[in-house]
Amino acid sequence: MNYVIIGNSIAAVNAVAGIREYDREGSITIVSAENYYAYGRPLISYWLEKRVQDQDMPYRPQEFYEKNCVRVILGRRAVKLDPEACQVHLDNGEKLPYDRLLLATGGRPFVPPIDGLTSADYFTFINYDDVRRLEAFAIPGREAVILGAGPTGLKAMESLVQRGVKVTLVELADRIWAPALDEEAASMIATFLQDKGVNLYLNDTLTRVYREADDRLHLELKSGRELQADILVMAIGVRPNVELLEGLPGVTINRGVVVGPDLSTGLPGVYAAGDVVAGSPPLLPHAAIQGKIAGRNMAGAREIYQPLPPYNALGFLGLHIISMGNSAADEGYEVLTEIDPAALVYRKLVLKDNRLDGVLLINKIDHRAGIYRQLLEEGLEVAPFKDALLRPDFGLLNLPEIIWRQKLAE
Fold it and tell me: Which residues, in sequence order, are bridge partners of residue 89?
């Protein structure tokens, strides 16, 4: 069996592991548009802060590829998929035949059309090359504007602040990280950021960019506000890289590629995993699980991918957040909270029909986070112990005996 994987990401590496669980002999080729072996993308902010070095970046040691007999082609892009010939065409003219193909092409930063904006005017914050380019400009005393106050924008903000750059966040929504934070939590974090010297403009966006005589950027916002900056970072989301599949019969594109329960794309022998999949949250745990299952299925398994609720852990400037599921919900749900603004503690459980539907934890994070995650993902009834959920002594023993005995056995 001849396996080809497009993309050298978390999904791709886990697909290799999945394939080798069932097939130790088939050939595996990975094609990476980047010039690096797979690395932990969350580490790019730590690299910019010099908390990790180049040698700390790889997701797996190079021996992983050697042990699993994987050929890795770095710095090449797949430019065409020919499903009839079962070939992938690369940008150097090489044609790779496949029996099974995985598209783990991820996503690219979304940059909206803005008057006067050119590619030389902004940075993105998605991959290793982004931060390597940004490093030379992130000099103490400079000013940066970040468009977008979601997880990517917040991590870019932290890295720049740690390097002595003055940061302004501009967010179109009425609060930061709106999909995960409700109004009260977002307001608390906004105050925290402002106390750290970060400017924050909500309900606003960038409408025009031009260079001044001193080569600084002049930025005009929808509100009429005008800003000046040395650095502009675009962090307002990603778009799945589905170009290889566009226009091919049997494939459905809905922003990402629509896949079947086995992660197949509708083309014979072609699967997808990670950010390129329609409806898949751009989160590493989901990409890893999808990659592993797709790899197994490519090698002959018949495994079904069960989508999991979104799970995100984010830390910046000493503040830590975990969000799970429908964590920003309020109206129409039963909500349990523990709030201590002075200590920057916010704990919120969202219940629907006596089952956890969302969890938001800020700064007071302990072993209970794992229990909440199990309750959420398994849809367990919490009515018998609902009053104990936020108590300091809540733990496994509060759960029904059959569950805690199972967890203790594990």
Answer: 80, 95
Tokens at 201, concatenated: 């403009």
The string of pLDDT tens digits covering residues 255-308 is 999 999 999 999 999 999 999 999 988 888 899 999 999 999 999 999 999 998
Q: List the structure tokens of 346.
A: 């916010």
**Do residues 147 and 234 lie in contact, with contact meaning Cβ atoms separated by under 8 Å?**
yes
List the structure tokens of 178. 């709106």
| CA atoms within a 13 Å half-sphere pointing along the CA-CB vector of 290 | 32
The answer to whether the CB of 174 falls within 8 A of the CB of 167 is no
What residues does 87 pair with on adjacent strands?
A: 82, 97
Residue 405 pLDDT greater than 80, yes or no: no
Instruction: Calculate ∠ Cα 65-70-73, nearest 5°.
Output: 100
3 state DSSP class of 320: strand
User: If you count them, how many residues does the chain have?
Assistant: 410
Superfamily of 2-107+240-298 according to CATH: FAD/NAD(P)-binding domain (3.50.50.60)
Q: Does domain 119-234 have CATH number 3.40.1190.20?
A: no
Each residue's pLDDT tens digit, 302-346: 999 999 899 999 999 999 999 999 999 998 999 999 999 999 999
How many C-beta atoms lie closer than 10 Å to residue 32's C-beta? 20
Task: Give the domain ranges of the chain.
Answer: 2-107+240-298, 119-234, 318-409
Helices (H), 300-397: 368-378
Q: What is the mean pLDDT of residues 112-121?
A: 96
CATH class of domain segment(s) 318-409: alpha beta
Amino acid code (one letter) for 185: A
Say if 119-234 and 318-409 have the same CATH topology.
no
pLDDT tens profile 36-45: 999 988 999 9
